[in-house]
Amino acid sequence: MTLKTLSIHVAAEFQKHYGRAPRWIVAAPGRVNVIGEHTDYNDGFVLPMAIERYAIMAADSAAAPGKISIYDTQFKESTSVDVSAPVTKGEPKWSNYIRGVLAGFQKRGVTIPALDIAFMSTVPLGGGLSSSAALEVCTATLMEAATGKAIDPIEKALLAQKAEHDFAGVPCGIMDQFISALGREGHLLLLDCRTRQTQLVPMSDPSVELLVVNTNVKHELGSGEYAKRRAECESAAKILGVASLRDATADQLEKAKGKMSEVVYRRARHVIGEIERTTHAAEGIRNSNWPAVGNLMYASHAALRDDYEVSCKELDVVVEIAEDIGYQGGVYGCRMTGGGFGGCCVALVKASDIAAISKKIAADYHMKTGIEATIFASRPAAGATIIKG
Ligand code: GLA
Question: Is the shortest distance between the CB of 339 and ligand 1 below 6 Å?
């Protein structure tokens, strides 16, 4: 569904549920990370792009003061949040992404207006495409529309990240919220997670496409393992005597190998290598050097699988199929994307071969795992927008 179709749809749902037209419509995209995985919380580089999948909200001022009503149009579930006092965590679970953002605005001294909201999302849930960041940034964008006060997009991303930390209990880095807030159509975003400086990397060569392959599996250990990886990286940095792994070189790590456990060594090896791969990939994209970018993607996957141990059988199967299709068949590279333990792979492919590649990946993946994959291509989309208001 295009953003236009989606906004017509959510407006109709709002009308049906609340009996009037919405005053505001806002949306924020999910993302796919092309390369730079598990580097954001190590002060490194990431290279995500916003995808044409969105969290979208239609809203209007509500008559009853001090209350926000939220209608989830997909699950036909309604909930409300008391905004007359500091917003706290609550049920249903998904409402915490919204609650966290509202609390963030309250902390900035904003009085939250009473609102009726209808909400939907085309970002697959739990698929590693940042459905939660899209919802958070969408909520923040609605607050901007409804209060008439825009905030700096970097502050907006940080506020959304804090919602994820404090209200969803996930100690995530800054990548997902940044790309959802700052994405630009036709561009990837090279983000320096230390300085928060961003560079737009044009992705306009019509001969290539990025293909998202959703394994449609999610292994539960995800969030506990995420926190564990963060701790292992911090311990590596401490042993190396640096503020974060961004400051360490591969040479330094080799020299200090004896001072750390084999596991911590491998975690650090992935991060140090991945930071370098990410800046090289940005260069490769700028030069349309697709074979080089593809090789960096394969190398990233191997390190995530073997050193960082955040892949899983299904993700590895997709990458193996992509490797089998190979350059001759139109695949330049492929890797898992996002936190890992399920979710999606991203493949860089020749645009002319996209139909055949999708068909082959779907068939082989089903044959090897018994699971149906969901596959789609996306051009780099724009970040959060106020569509009406
Ligand atoms: C999740 C987190 C991000 C990032 C990735 C791994 O998506 O939310 O901050 O750490 O995992 O690159």
Answer: yes
Is residue 134 included in any domain, yes or no?
yes
Question: Best of 34, 38, 191, 244 to mutate for ligand 1, by most ligand atoms within 8 A of CB?
Answer: 38
The answer to whether residue 119 is domain-embedded is yes
Is 176 near ligand 1, meaning CB less than 6 Å away? yes
Measured in degrees and rounded to the nearest 5, phi and psi for residue 300 equal -60, -45
The region, left, alpha or beta by phi > 0 then psi within -120 to 50, assigned to residue 23 is alpha
pLDDT tens-digit series, residues 336-384? 999 999 999 999 999 999 999 999 999 999 999 999 999 999 999 999 9
| Number of domains composing the chain | 1
For residues 226-237, average pLDDT: 97
* Position 212 in a domain: no
Contact between 348 and 290 (Cβ < 8 Å):
yes
Instruction: Say how many Å lie between the first and final Cα of the chain, rounded.
Output: 21
pLDDT at residue 40 above 70? yes
| CATH number of the domain within which 12 lies | 3.30.230.10
d(Cα 347, Cα 344) in Å, to the nearest integer?
A: 10
With a 6 Å cutoff on the Cβ, whether 37 touches ligand 1 is yes
Spatial CB neighbours of 252, under 8 Å, sequence gap ≥ 6 = 240, 242
Q: Which atom of ligand 1 is nearest to the CA of 170?
A: 8
Q: Which domain holds residue 19?
A: 3-30+52-185+383-388
Q: What is the pLDDT of residues 267-322, one digit of tens each?
A: 999 999 999 999 999 999 999 999 999 999 999 999 999 999 999 999 999 999 99
Instruction: Kindly name the residue from 40, 43, 176, 307 that is annotated as catalytic.
Output: 176
Asked, for residue 253, whether it belongs to a domain, the answer is no
